[in-house]
């Protein structure tokens, strides 16, 4: 295959990216049309997803395919927990009674399944979230700070702040090199690309569910 894998996966997921980016919920949220309760609910869903991703990563550290992608500076669970404590007014018991939306539970199940039984699939999920967070995530942070008045890079938006990554562009370049060198054959690469599309669809599903929960009353 002549096309570098990083280009292939990016090109293949472009359409799904546009769909996720332009979802009604994201548009309303970033357009400043929704309250901080919607942002909180969204952040809660992310917490379930990243816990699945980061719990699952533990067993894959030494895996030849997924292992190199697992890097401590990407981990987001602790940041999400700080954000959520803040979003819940500093309440220590914010976890109590917190349940994932069905769409989030489906996403979590798929991530856990890949982590357990398919390292290539896990890479697809890893790419879809972390490379996105390092890119468009910065736009979301900026909007969130302005809309709901969070301190710049402070509690509420720590999820979007990668303290251990001083140069995101260089990090993304190195990440793409990892993708290009992933030790799998062309057929497996195609399967990973398909899983990436599925990962985007799972994200879109969560947005759809959130959109139904926070319709604009206009
Ligand atoms: C409103 C929401 C979003 C905005 C504004 C946004 C914006 C962006 C931007 C500006 C880039 C950089 C493109 C480039 O390097 O030329 C990017 C890349 C990316 N985004 Fe998003 N995005 C959003 C939502 C999402 C979602 C929901 C996902 C998936 C869960 C996602 C996954 C990705 C990925 C994987 C990349 C890296 C593409 C690559 O370089 O291989 N994005 N996004």
TrEMBL record:
Alphabetical keyword list: Heme, Iron, Metal-binding
A GO molecular-function annotation: metal ion binding
Keyword Iron set for record: yes
Biological process annotations from GO: heme catabolic process; heme oxidation; response to oxidative stress
Cleavable signal peptide: none
Keyword Metal-binding: yes
Superkingdom per UniProt: Bacteria
Residues noted as binding heme b in the record, renumbered to the chain: 10, 17, 127, 176
Name of this chain's protein: Biliverdin-producing heme oxygenase
Organism whose genome encodes this protein: Streptomyces boluensis
Organism lineage string: Bacteria, Bacillati, Actinomycetota, Actinomycetes, Kitasatosporales
